[in-house]
Amino acid sequence: MDVDGETVDRERYDEKREISVFAAEDAADELIAGRARRDGEVFIGSISLEATEDAVRRALKACGAETGAVGFEMMTDRATGKHRGYAFARYGDPESAAKAIETIESARVEIGGQKIRASVKPNKTRVFVGGIRKDATRAECVEALRARGAGLEFFELARPKKKKEGVEQTDENGGHGWATYYNEACAERFMKNMREAEDKLPIANESDTRGMTTSWATVKASAAKVQGIRTLHVRDLNSTNATEEAMRECFGRFGDIEDVQLRTDREPHFAWVTFANPNDAEKALGECEPVPDAPEGRKGGSFISSVDGATLNIAPAKGGGPKQKGAPESGRGGPSRGGRDDWSKYRTGGIGGKYGGGLAPRGSWSGRTPANNTMPVILPTGQVAYAMMPNRGGGRGGRGGGRRDNRHRPY
């Protein structure tokens, strides 16, 4: 095994984020000094609305979860002044935070007769950086990015694309990389400075007309994980929680949310929340209080809303959840049967409002002449049928004056 070669390769790309590039002088930065490092902030949820901040602090101290904590904050509603049923505890390092989570969960801490839950607060600290010169080294990239703000801890440089056999490899990298910052505040400052800066960094690819680009780096699920649960069915929503903003506040701490769809035309309201990564949906399910006497292996249960402390019920969405917004519908009378007349006025209030609705079948009244003396009619069930009109020359076989063919033929 070429140990020296592996060392050089790791220093060139650092794909596993093993080599810290954090500068000692950055420790005094206003967004770093006294602030929690990424993965050093713990979300504490399912707090009884009757509990006080002092009660929560005493419970954490009693179970030993206060060790290593450098800050604590109960989240309150600005309008009412009451807490929202969750809090954040900041720790000096990720190890202390992980230990506190384990302590709280294993001790099954209860406040006011309600068990609290703890998990790492997800933070956006990893940024995708594109438009890098393909001959730039990792050291050059690190030096250039530091000019846009302190707090850079790791930088992964993408490997160059493989050339065809016989073609010399001249690229140092793949033209992009990933920057990991000390905390979310540092990462946000970096992205803001990149957007607003007028000067170009020396590592910018001059041939790329888009210039250097930045965006939040998301974890792409593998082919196996794509089959996992990404959409949650959230039930028992009250009017406060039945908004997209409320759903994103409740579940956004677990990871990136791709879509939120609500149904408020019936009570209780419900919603579907779709995550970008199945692992994030699993985290949310893991914070549920299991339903008593539920079948073994069933996921989901009661979940405390971080918006108003109400109890929601969540479970994996059956069939992968609802159709995405803008997706064509299907089935009898659905919009995907385009190019035909809309009969929805017959559903209520229109002509013959007691009948069903839908779209007329092809060849009915959409500018085409019905064939074989047929006439579309609406049945009391809402279906559209063809009525065979009498043939003045006689019906089939010339018997019965056409009575044989004068009948409904549902399509």
From TrEMBL:
Record-linked SMART domains: RRM
Q: Name one Pfam family in it.
A: RRM_1
Origin, by domain of life? Answer: Eukaryota
A GO MF label: RNA binding
UniProt keyword annotation of Ribosomal protein present: no
Report biased composition (Gly residues) as residue ranges: 349-360
Keywords annotated in UniProt: RNA-binding
RRM domain residues: 40-123, 230-319
Among InterPro entries, the record links this protein to:
Nucleotide-bd_a/b_plait_sf, RBD_domain_sf, RRM_dom
> Is RNA-binding among this UniProt entry's keywords?
yes
Cite the residue spans of the region called Disordered.
Answer: 312-373, 387-411
**Annotated protein name in UniProt:** Nucleotide-binding, alpha-beta plait
Source organism per entry reads Ostreococcus tauri (Marine green alga)
